[in-house]
Specification:
The protein is of the alpha/beta class. It folds into 2 domains: 27-261, Type I PLP-dependent aspartate aminotransferase-like (Major domain) (Aspartate Aminotransferase, domain 2), CATH 3.40.640; 263-392, Alpha-Beta Complex (Aspartate Aminotransferase, domain 1), CATH 3.90.1150.10. Helices cover 38% and strands 13% of the residues. The chain has 14 helices and 13 strands. The protein is globular. The N and C termini lie close together (7 Å).
Length: 398
């Protein structure tokens, strides 16, 4: 089809993975402590330490550690009190967990287009999608960059809607000084191995309304009021309402606690890689060859992800193949949900898909993780420059 120009530089190093789960060195010490204290199930000392750290750091009313970011979203959807026939507005450019939570709660999905600059839900398209059945707006803070929350919260207030923040990628990011996850009615974090802080599998729900805290605890504790019992507020606990087992294991919480204690150094390390990429690729962006992430004024991000946008799908796929040939793992991201079989079954797209599909086909994510070696970062940069130099001088890459 097309030929690939061979370059003088040949690579035989180990593969640079897209992600390496964070590890700061004290995780096993804390896990051992949990085992030796005979507290390995949920809601023990390490769970409480993690919750308290986030509540204090983010000024949150209540944070509950969950088994995953997905289960945090499930809890949020249930707490919104959705019923069959209710509608939830959300972006199509997200992971299925965002949608699954509201399907589980019985709602229908209404997808709207995204902004091409941040890949976040286009706040200007939300109002037109609101109907008498709309109950919730769910926003996704893509790459740890905030959605335009002032506008979204104003729409929600005017139409008496609840707001759920899918801040799976957004912990430590802020919007006009407010931590992501603390602006809407509920916020959801993820501590999956691909996130800035990890416990392997895990998450957290942020409850921002005082009136929902007790209900959230009952849902979290298998439908019982056991949390009140443990605080000495009642002399026995019983089954109060529907609930499930959303509590994370103490072993996982112990792992997370080590990383929260090192939150500053983890963020600094990730930010160093993010900034190095941005500076290195600025000339390519200025020449119109690629596009770089946009951070709107008032938004402070957490260096969760660095992506570039290629000219088109063919260029992106060629770039991914080229980087793989150089032992560098670069990956695309979401296939828009509205075009997936489940998206067609459970939802509809309101308005025109101007950017969701087109922009998703151009985006590719580069390796970025805690303690990424400068030499590995340089290799990603050098290989990327090589590829686009080939594109610029007319050579084609298969």
């Amino acid at each position: 089809m097309v030929h690939q120009r061979s370059l003088l530089k040949e690579y035989s190093q180990d593969m640079i993975d897209f992600n390496v789960p964070p590890y700061v060195g004290t995780e096993l010490q804390y896990i051992k402590e949990a085992v030796e204290n005979h507290r390995i199930s949920g809601d023990g000392p390490f769970t409480k330490k993690c919750s308290r750290w986030m509540e204090d750091r983010f000024g949150a009313k209540k944070i509950l550690i969950t088994t995953s970011g997905s289960s945090a979203l499930d809890m949020a959807a249930f707490l919104c009190g959705l019923e069959p026939g209710d509608e939830v507005i959300l972006p199509s450019y997200t992971f299925p967990s965002t949608a699954n939570a509201f399907i589980l709660a019985g709602a229908s999905l209404v997808f709207v287009d995204i902004r091409p600059d941040t890949m976040n839900i286009d706040e200007s398209k939300i109002k037109a999608a609101v109907t008498g059945k709309t109950k919730v707006i769910c926003v996704v803070h893509y790459a740890g960059v905030a959605c335009e929350m002032d506008t979204i919260m104003d729409i929600a207030k005017r139409h008496d809607l609840m707001v759920v923040e899918d801040a799976a990628q957004g912990i430590m990011s802020t919007y006009k000084g407010s931590p992501l996850g603390t602006i809407g009615d509920f916020g959801c974090y993820s501590f999956h191995e691909t996130k800035n802080f990890s416990m392997g599998e895990g998450g957290a729900i942020v409850i921002n309304r005082e009136s929902f805290i007790e209900k959230a605890e009952i849902l979290w504790e298998k439908g019982t009021d056991r949390s009140r019992f443990y605080r000495g507020q009642i002399d026995k606990y019983t089954w109060i309402d529907f609930g499930d087992s959303y509590l994370q294991s103490e072993l996982n919480a112990a792992y997370l606690w080590a990383q929260l204690q090192a939150a500053g150094q983890i963020n600094d390390s990730r930010m160093a890689s993010w900034q190095a990429y941005r500076e290195a690729f600025a000339p390519l962006a200025e020449a119109g060859i690629i596009e770089l992430p946009v951070i709107p004024e008032g938004c402070a991000h957490n260096a969760h992800m660095f992506y570039i946008k290629c000219r088109d799908l063919d260029t992106r796929q060629a770039y991914i193949r080229f980087m793989k040939s150089r032992d560098v793992q670069c990956v695309f991201h979401y296939v828009p949900l509205h075009s997936a079989p489940a998206g067609l079954k459970f939802g509809r797209f309101h308005g025109e898909d101007c950017f969701t599909t087109a922009e998703s086909e151009r985006l590719v994510r580069l390796p970025l993780y805690y303690n990424m070696a400068p030499k590995d970062r340089k290799r990603v940069i050098d290989c990327t420059r090589d590829f686009f130099e080939m594109c610029r001088d007319g050579s084609q890459v298969s």
